[in-house]
Write a structure and sequence with these properties.
Keywords: Methyltransferase, S-adenosyl-L-methionine, Transferase. This is Protein-lysine methyltransferase METTL21D isoform X2. GO terms for molecular function: methyltransferase activity. It holds the Pfam family Methyltransf_16. This protein has 149 residues and is an alpha/beta fold. It contains 3 helices and 6 strands. Strand 3, helix 2 and strand 4 (88-94) form a beta-alpha-beta unit. It is globular. Bound molecules: S-adenosylmethionine.
């Protein structure tokens, strides 16, 4: 059983591309009553510098971010640059069967497992109302590096 109480007094940064910042800010405003800590929107293009987001966060929530081939390497770079050994990455995605999506998902998990270990959250532990056979949730942690000379 996985039990995270993420939203008690968390300091949250929501990120996306420049062109959707207004939408992020609108979402923050509409959900402000649910936030007891702090929340801010910032631009983060995957693969680019993450200095502004360090030290490594306790949690990274990734919802539906695995869907196009060109983004895989930059997305994984961002995860590697951001996540420390203590960081929990919660990754959820909807399995898509159209076009290149099955290959993109397969490739993402191949590349991911070079540096991260994965634990699948069983369906019976998903939210009762929103669970669905084609929606998957993983808890992802950084692997400890073997430092050899
Ligand atoms: C399928 S949407 C999911 C949005 C949201 N997480 C959700 O679950 O509703 C994918 C999001 O990834 C963002 N995105 C796509 N490519 C990106 C990139 N290279 N760097 C940062 N964000 C990117 C898109 O702008 C979009 O908001």
């Amino acid at each position: 059983m996985f039990s995270f109480h993420l939203f008690c007094r968390a300091n949250v940064t929501v990120t996306d591309l420049e062109e959707v910042q207004d939408l992020l800010k609108m979402n923050i405003e509409k959900n402000q009553h649910l936030v007891s800590g702090s929340i801010q929107a910032k631009v983060l293009k995957w693969g680019e510098d993450v200095t502004d987001f360090l030290p490594a966060p306790d949690f990274i929530l990734m919802a539906d971010c695995i869907y196009y081939e060109e983004s895989l390497e930059p997305l994984l770079k961002t995860l590697k640059d951001l996540a420390g050994l203590g960081t929990f990455i919660l990754c959820c995605y909807e399995e898509r069967t159209m076009g290149q999506n099955p290959e993109v998902e397969k490739r993402y998990f191949e590349l991911l497992q070079r540096d991260f270990k994965l634990q699948k959250v069983p369906l019976d532990e998903h939210d009762e109302e929103y669970r669905s056979e084609d929606i998957h949730i993983f808890i992802i942690r950084r692997k400890k590096m073997n430092i050899s000379s």
